[in-house]
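Checklist before submission:
- one chain only
- standard amino acids only
- sequence pasted in full

Submission:
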Amino acid sequence: MWCCCHPRSIIALSALVFAFSAWTLVTRIAVVTDTDAMIDASLPFRTDYAQFQANYPLLGDTVVVIIEADAPEIARRTAHQLSAALEQDKRYFSSVTAPAILPFFEENGLLLLDYETLTDRLDRLIEAQPLLGPLLRQPSLARFMNSLAEIVEKQDPDTKTEQLAGILTAIEQTGQAVLNVQPGVLSLQNAVLNQRSQDIILLTAQPVLDRSQIEPAAAALAALRAHVDAAERKSAAPVRMSITGKIALNEEELETVSAGAATAGLLSGFLVAVILAYGVRSWRGVAAMLINLVFGLVATGSAALWLFGALNIISVAFAVLFIGLGIDFSIHILLRAQEDSTADANETMLAQALSKAAGTSGIALAICAPTTALAFLSFTPTGYAGLAQLGAIAAIGVFIAMISAVTLLPALLIVLRFQSNTLSRKPWKLSLRAPRMLVFVPMGMALPALYLAAQIGFEADPIALKDPEASSVIAYNRLAARKETSPYAIQLVAAGQQSAQELLQAARQLPSVGQVVWAGSFMPQEQADKLDLIAETYDLLAPDLVSVDARKASDQSAALQALQRLHALTPSDVLAAFIQQPLLISELEERLLETLPDLRTTLRRQLRTTGVERLPPALEALYRGRDGSYRLELFPAQPIADEASLEAFVDAVKAAFPSATGSPVQIIEAGRIVRTSMLQATGIAFVLVVSFLLIVLRSLKQLFFVLVPVVLAGIFTLATSVLAGLSFNFANVIVLPLLIGLGVDAGIHYVKRAFEPGAEQNVGTTGRAVFLSSATTIGSFGTLMVSKHAGTASMGLLLTISLCWLLFTTLVVLPALLEVMDAKGAPSQT
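Returned file contents:
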């Protein structure tokens, strides 16, 4: 009443609060994208991982560039160029690591092969000498074609070696690309030596993060993309590069969540306005409620930033949740005031109606606010810190919405000269012609639904919650599909070298472990014998590698004669085409000999190796910790196809090595924490809400009627989720605790009205208010489904399902139950 009598003072004070809150949002907004930070940092598996990251800082916050090309020489060349560019860009990158292109591997690659493979590799090299030797000494198309022709002439005409056949096929493919004006070069490493090296090169960089920005890695990632584009343009042949890694995944997830939240917020506001316009039928009333809603939203966001300093990937959804929940308080106050006012009511009469609404529906709201807040706060005692933050923010928002509904809203209604209307005051009532059926049929359905509900699953891998169309997610999944590049490697740490060797032998015994990599993996075995073999091969090839003519374009007539000679021995439509179009011969020469310098450099380095005494610092830093420990990477024996296979891999390794850590362990252990937190939070919410209701209602009978719709809606929600193939995940586990809070709110309004002296069930504006508040909440929460972030979308979908069931149980089952059990107040006198 005081607010109605001093509306302009209330509005002025609210405007000051709004201005300060808006300033806070603009200047302090920040979002933490690290999903690891959403789990309690004091848990053992989190402290183990934190210690591991402190000892191996190069494995921390990184981006990964995947470099691929049809010619491995082009991929390595591009990797060198990109690595050099990033190392020079100290503004955005603090470190760059690309083990595959380290000089150590380029010089000692042959030594790292097992003895049998090395022998085969050197035999192939010697076998290729009649072709490769002359080409190295005289790099020209004429020499290349003539050497091939000489080899063909010396061979049995009815047989063709696999190596020769492979070379001729590769030449035809490259020539066809020239004729079709398509990119592509000949990989001499693959064609001549048949050396299929790793076709993917991984370059890892640590970006410099700007913590003052809402997207701290945005500038660094933009710089990385610019460097990648430049490297692609400089490449002599097509090269494919994609970016992934923790930082890229988090940054794209933030962009997806932010875009989804913004879209959902706008759509939510629009839907709420439309629903209110239909239910209230007064633009002044709708305007007052929307202004009140915006005030509460901004004030809640400001309070969240002052309390937590930053939001997280889940708590950014508070805005949509607030729109759906905050409007409920205004709806009940306004519609109850409409019921007690008339279309020609003056300011005094409206103030009296608002005051009476606060004394009737306001009492129910005063009970609903704590129950909803308790449901949101139920995650606070659990280990799931990320959702605990969302719960705390939403709880704050609930009380802000409650306070503004009995302060700012009445003041706005007075100033806007709100007038009631006859339509909005009409009783809103569902037909209850068969109340017993409406009670016993849902009760009977609850038993089979409960059986289904028990089968609901849980998705623990955070990658499954991200936008599947995001480039970083696509790249990540491609790595995960290959066991040799799997990001699901488990980490073991050994105090010393002897301990590392013992762990190595034990890990190799596990069937689920396919490969174990540690510092010792890069120390060649049987070096002396291998060096002898390599030296013998070098002696045979040294004249070809040392004496090299500068490459120059072939004489066109000589090249044409060589092509004609080879074509006569091995007829080919492609060769015939170049013979007929001699102007294309120079382009063919460029394509066929592009990778020759790379091959020459590689052979020189590998055949002149002097052995390995110790690892280079760049490689040692990856596998030796700051404390002198040794790191062992355990890769899965098979690609990780789903969460079940990941959990089996982690459990098998953890059973043998309890101290195992790394990303897979974090995923599985965090998933278990979230599952446990969901059950704990649901139990806590139920106990706290029931205890609170017992205190304020002081009636087991009323408590029974309030809880029946909630329990039924919960069972039907879980059963529907199972039938629809939905599962719980890191984002949507808030559904059950929230359902308890929202469910008792609707029930409280109905039950309190039913037990009011002189009231009937489902009469007056209570039914309309419950319907409108439920409809606005569904409309608001449902907009989360438009998000490309799978976690946010699943939260919206599951909340929508739960609220639809709650609407049914509250508006249909509860009134029927009240009718069947004859639970009503004294005869109506209104």
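Reviewer check: The CA atoms of residues 341 and 353 lie 6 Å apart.
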